[in-house]
């Protein structure tokens, strides 16, 4: 029976070199495909960071995922929206306390303060 040789242990430098080569090969394939859609890599990165099956992502969270400044995400989102590839929506704000009756209690407290101030 033939002896099976153990795979050669790669150094970290060799492994990194191969990884860079694979990334370069992937880049060479991806760039023309993106260009065919009129997309720059940065814009494609925004699309890849989004998942239409999940709840919408706030732009600050998207900036965190992409490791960039939120102003960059705003600019890229504007470009993608103009291209019809994404839709930006305002974030829903919850100003009211969700507990039952909280709004009435808050309003009552404010009215009491106004009455007290006007009585002085």
Describe the structure.
By secondary structure, the protein is an all-alpha fold. It has a domain at 20-90: Arc Repressor Mutant, subunit A (Orthogonal Bundle). It has five helices and no strands. The chain has helices at residues 12-36, 41-49, 59-66, 70-82, 102-119. Helix 3 (59-66) crosses helix 4 (70-82). The longest helix has 25 residues, at 12-36. The protein is elongated, with a radius of gyration of 27 Å. It starts with 11 loop residues before the first helix and ends with a helix. The relative contact order is 0.06. The mean pLDDT is 81.
Topology diagram in text:
Elements: H1 12-36, H2 41-49, H3 59-66, H4 70-82, H5 102-119
Helix pairs in contact: 3-4
CATH topology of the domain at 20-90: Arc Repressor Mutant, subunit A
Query: Which architecture of the domain at 20-90 per CATH?
Result: Orthogonal Bundle
Question: What class, by secondary structure content?
Answer: mainly alpha
CA radius of gyration is 27 Å
Question: N-to-C terminal Cα separation, in Å?
Answer: 103 Å
Secondary-structure element series: HHHHH
Q: How is the biggest beta sheet arranged?
A: none
Given as residue ranges, the uncertain stretches (5+ residues, pLDDT < 50) are: none
The 3D shape can be described as elongated
- The helix content is 55-70%
Overall mean pLDDT: 81
User: How many separate helices?
Assistant: 5
Q: How much strand content do the residues show?
A: under 5%
Strand element count: 0
């Amino acid at each position: 029976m033939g002896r099976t040789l153990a795979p050669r242990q790669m150094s970290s430098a060799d492994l990194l070199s191969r990884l860079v080569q694979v990334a370069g090969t992937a880049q060479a394939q991806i760039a023309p495909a993106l260009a065919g859609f009129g997309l720059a890599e940065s814009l494609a990165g925004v699309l890849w960071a989004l998942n239409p099956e999940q709840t919408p992502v706030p732009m600050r969270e998207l900036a965190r995922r992409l490791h960039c400044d939120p102003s960059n995400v705003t600019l890229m989102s504007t470009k993608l929206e103009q291209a019809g590839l994404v839709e930006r929506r305002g974030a829903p704000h919850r100003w009211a306390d969700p507990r039952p009756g909280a709004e009435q209690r808050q309003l009552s407290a404010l009215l009491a303060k106004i009455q007290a101030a006007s009585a002085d």
